[in-house]
């Protein structure tokens, strides 16, 4: 072997190895791509959230209610059966509601609320149609008075605040006036999203429960 041949051969072999692709390759870095536009959920600002739930905003045409005066009425009325009923206790003066307390039971769930005209956190106003609008941060009530009844309408009242569950309370409760025995009826207030029916054994109560749910 000629002198200097071996070092040249080694250099040639090492150069060939350097040109070969390594057997173990590093994984390519992950690239985070934005989701498709139809999957992007817009994030609402605090101002937008406040605007969406501002139930205390003034309603055009509403006026201040007149001062309470006149004969005092106190009525406590219940409609339904033990495991499915709604109850309303109210106080009025001269045909104007001064306060009302609502309680409902739809076994095992219950709701309870107490609203008073002198509560600074609640807004009571007279609508152009002559009804009383009761605005709360959790929803709206409309009260219509006539010579023989008080009608309470619940409009998108949040269940979470008063019942501890999701959804909204919508419906009506009518309380008769000037009757010897309190009489009242409900429509919609005891409905819920599920299909559970209160278990009752008395056929007469079954008819009553079904009537309340219509």
Overview of the structural elements:
The protein has 4 helices and 10 strands. The chain has 214 residues and is an alpha+beta fold. A 6-stranded antiparallel β-sheet has the order 5-6-7-8-9-10. The N and C termini lie far apart (109 Å). The relative contact order is 0.13. The model is unreliable at 47-51 and 194-214 (pLDDT under 50).
Secondary-structure topology with pairs:
Blueprint: H1 5-19, H2 46-52, E1 72-81, E2 84-93, E3 96-106, E4 109-116, E5 123-126, E6 132-136, E7 139-145, E8 149-158, H3 159-163, E9 168-176, E10 184-187, H4 203-213
Antiparallel strand pairs: 1-2, 2-3, 3-4, 5-6, 6-7, 7-8, 8-9, 9-10
Question: What are its keywords?
Answer:
214 residues; six-stranded antiparallel beta sheet; elongated
Record the strand order, biggest sheet.
5-6-7-8-9-10
Rg for CA atoms = 35 Å
Helix content: 10-25%
Cα separation of the termini: 109 Å
Could you state the order of secondary-structure elements as H and E?
HHEEEEEEEEHEEH
For the largest beta-sheet, the strand count, sense and barrel status come to:
6 strands, antiparallel
Question: Total number of helical segments?
Answer: 4
